[in-house]
Automatic annotation (TrEMBL):
Gene3D superfamilies: Homeodomain-like, Jelly Rolls. InterPro entries: AraC-bd (IPR003313), Homeodomain-like_sf (IPR009057), HTH_AraC (IPR018060), HTH_AraC-typ_CS (IPR018062), RmlC-like_jellyroll (IPR014710), RmlC_Cupin_sf (IPR011051), Tscrpt_reg_AraC-type_HTH (IPR020449). This is Helix-turn-helix domain-containing protein. PANTHER family: ARAC-FAMILY TRANSCRIPTIONAL REGULATOR, HTH-TYPE TRANSCRIPTIONAL ACTIVATOR RHAS. It comes from Eubacterium ramulus. Keywords: DNA-binding, Transcription, Transcription regulation. The keyword Nucleus does not apply. It holds the Pfam family AraC_binding. Residues 202-300 form the HTH araC/xylS-type domain. One of its GO terms (molecular function) is DNA-binding transcription factor activity.
Amino acid sequence: MELIMKNTITISVQDDFLENRAHGDTAFPCAAYFTDAKTHDIRWHWHEEYEVSIVRSGSCPLSVGTDHLVLHAGDGIFINTGTLHSQETTKATSDFYKEDLVFHGRLIYGSKYTVFWQKYMAPIATSGHSLPYIHLRTSIPWEKELLELIADATTIAREKPFGYEYEIREKLSRLFLVLAKNRTELESDNRQDSSQEMQHLKKMIRYIQNNYMESISLKQLSETANICEREVQRSFHNIIQQSPIQYLIHYRIEKACHMLDSGEQSIIDISNSCGFSSPSYFTKTFKSIVGCTPREYRNTR
C-alpha cells in the first residue's frame, strides 16, 4: 500500500455518524491527511481508528465530545477510538496547517491475543468515556514527547522514505507506551462525556440528516429524542454550539456543496432538493455561509 498525504475536505458518515471512509487498508491500516485554511469544516463523525494530529502553523477550533478547543501552532491532539469530533476549519487563521494520522490499533498490536493489546492498548481503548482525547502541549514533558513522536510520524508519512511503514509503526507504538505510563493521571484529569446527552444528540441529528429537505420543528426533534424542547436546544448548544435550525441550515448548505461539486443538477433544482423555500433565499444563505454564490462556487470547482 502507498501512503498518500490527502487533503481532508468532506466526511461521509452513516446515520450514527460512523465514518464511511476506510483509512489505509488491511496490509497497512493507516492513512495520512492534512487540513489547511482552505478546507471545508469537518462535521461531526467518529471512527474505530485512533487519530493523532499536530498543528504546524496557525490555529483552529476543534470539538471533541462535549469539549470545544482551539489548537494552536505546536499543539497536538490524541483522539481515542469511537470518539465524536468535528473541526471548524472556516474559523481557522489564514496560516492554519495541520497534519493527521488515522490508524487502526491492529497496526500496533496485530492480534487481541497479544500482550500489546491486553496490557497496553485495551485499557486506553476501553476508557473512551473517561479518556476521549488528550489536548497535547509542549509545557508538559511527556506530552511534549508525544508531540515529537507525532511530528516525526507525520513527517515520515509525508516524505515516505524506504521502510516508512516500519518507522511509522515504531513511532505510534512508542506513543502508546507513553500513554500507558501516564493513563492514571490522564483519566483523573479528563472530564467525562455526558453519554446520555450525546445519545440524544445523535438521534436528533440522524433525524435532521434523514429529513433535511423538509420543514423540521423543535417538537419533531423533541419527540425523536424523547426529551422536552428546552433540552433539545440545550443539547445542541452544549455539544455543537449551534441551535437546531443553524445545524439544519448548515447541513443543507453542505449537501448543496456536494451537489454543486457533481455538476449534474441546476442551481434551482439543488435549492429545491435541499429544502430552501426559494432560489433567492438559497443564494443569500449560501453566500453568508460559504462566502460566494452557488454559481461562483460551481465555477471554481
